[in-house]
Amino acid sequence: MKDDQRPGVDIEALTAEVDKRLKKADAALARDYPGERAGRQPVHTLYVPADRLEPDLLTTYANDAQMSIVENGAEFLEVLGGDEDLVGRVLAKLEREPIEDLRIDFEDGYGARSDDEEDTAARDAAAVLAQWVADGDAPPFHGIRFKSLEQRTRARGLRTLSIFLEALADEGGLTNGFVVTLPKVTSVDQVEAMTWAAECLESELGLAPLQFELQIEAPQAILGGNGSALVAKMIHAAGGRCSGLHFGTYDYTADLGIAPEQQTLEHPAADHAKAVMQVAAAGTGVRLSDGSTNVLPVGDADAVRAGWENHLRLVRRSLERGFYQGWDLHPVQLPTRYAATFAFFRSGLESAGGRLRSYLDASDTTFVDEPATARALAAFLMRGIDCGALSDGEVGKASRLPVSRLTELARRPAGAGS
Questions:
Q1: Residues contacting 148, CB < 8 A, separation 6+
Q2: How far is residue 149 CA from its own chain's centroid?
Q3: Are 303 and 281 in contact (CB under 8 A)?
Q4: DSSP structural state of residue 98
Q5: How far is residue 212 from each of residues 136, 142, 261, 305, measured CA to CA in Å?
Q6: CB neighbours (10 Å) of residue 281?
Q7: Strand pairing partners for 46?
Q8: Could you read off the pLDDT of 241-291 as tens digits, one per residue?
Q9: Distance of CA 41 to the CA centre of its chain
Q10: What are phi and psi of 321, to 5 degrees?
Q11: 327 sits in which H/E element
Q12: pLDDT at 3
């Protein structure tokens, strides 16, 4: 048959057959990788041992953070490179919203107590949180970390979770910002069990669906016995309930046999684990949080300055690596948490706004950005707005886009185009 007699390809039939063959894969992609989760992500989680939770804790922590700047003003300004505007912004944030996410800790920070003592602490903590919610004072995000589902702590952890939730529900203290932290996850089975337990508690107590974070602090979560990255399977085993992956710096590095002096969130082994977490979470809507540093800015002026310098550097490092949230263990870490975060977003404002504007109107060929990069640029600007580093007006001026358009671009699922 000559070329000019060859029948043409039936494109419609070809496409229909490919659609049929990929139907299940398309559905799985949409289900398992819905894209960025809608709404704000806190820039930190501040851990407070349950036995230290008092009704005036929020005020006390805010005052402690502010006073650390007042009493060490020269040192703080030096750490920030003399940026007085940034100092003012941090102080304003500490006045307006000192804590974005608070986790009441019944695990390592609380320790082993008698059943009666922990039962009472769970009820008391729920009462305090419920009162904050009623008064409109609760941090936007809040919740508890209970003991793990390892066999030796399982019964105590579930008991604390049940008591706390029942007491909080009775007081009308459950909000959309509430989250549960499941620590020391070592198997997909534990995630499935947590999902089942959440369903039972919801049914018994009449609760809305519970969200939980997985703490990745055991090597088994990164590399399972069968050689697979179990953390990826854990996300999908949660049935949409997993809201975040939080890295546990010290448990993880200690389990690898790393010497205490080298147990930091910037150790290469920690970076490897977090890189695996990052790939596992990409496109799922599950958010990432880096771990903590136990080098606190307390003591004399030199010790405070050194602690602040270390924390500022580590927070900036995490942000540069795509971890927009981290743990804090003490109120005097709040000044450098916000200083590093604000400086990060403010330093990128003009570049991100300009590149996004150029991408949308094709007015500049300096950068040849892809749709995925445009999505990341919009998400960057929205994160800056969410934490208070940037104002709507500043972002609108830099990008020439309304916040509604930025939100649309930032939340667009991967592969959805521009």
A1: 107, 154, 157, 182, 183, 184, 185, 190
A2: 22
A3: no
A4: S
A5: 23, 11, 32, 36
A6: 18
A7: 102, 328
A8: 999 999 999 999 999 999 999 999 999 999 999 999 999 999 999 999 999
A9: 6
A10: -100, 10
A11: strand 326-328
A12: 55
Torsion from C-alpha of 84, 90, 93, 98, nearest 10 degrees = -150
Angle between helices 57-71 and 334-347 (to 10 degrees): 70
- Cβ(383)–Cβ(410) below 8 Å: no
Q: Which tokens sit at 33?
A: 């990788």
Given the structure tokens 């990432």, which residue do they identify?
Answer: 288
Q: Which residues neighbour 268 within 8 Å (Cβ) at sequence distance 6 or greater? A: none
Strand ordering across the sheet containing 242-247: 287-289, 242-247, 212-216, 178-182, 141-145, 101-105, 44-49, 326-328
CATH code 3.20.20.60 region(s) in the chain: 44-346
Q: Which residue has the tokens 């920030």?
A: 80
**Segment 365-381 mean pLDDT:** 82
In single-letter form, the type of residue at position 386 comes to: D
| Residue 125, pLDDT above cutoff 60 | yes
Q: From the centroid of its chain, how far is CA 6?
A: 58
> Can you tell me which residue has the tokens 């085993």?
237
**Which fold does the domain 44-346 belong to in CATH?**
TIM Barrel (3.20.20)
Residues 6+ apart with CB under 8 A from 176: none
Say if CB 242 and CB 285 are below 8 A apart.
no
Question: Which helix (H) or strand (E) is 173 found in, with range?
Answer: none
139-171 confidence digits (pLDDT tens) = 999 999 999 999 999 999 999 999 999 999 999
Tokens at residue 76, please?
A: 């703080």
pLDDT at residue 415 greater than cutoff 70: no
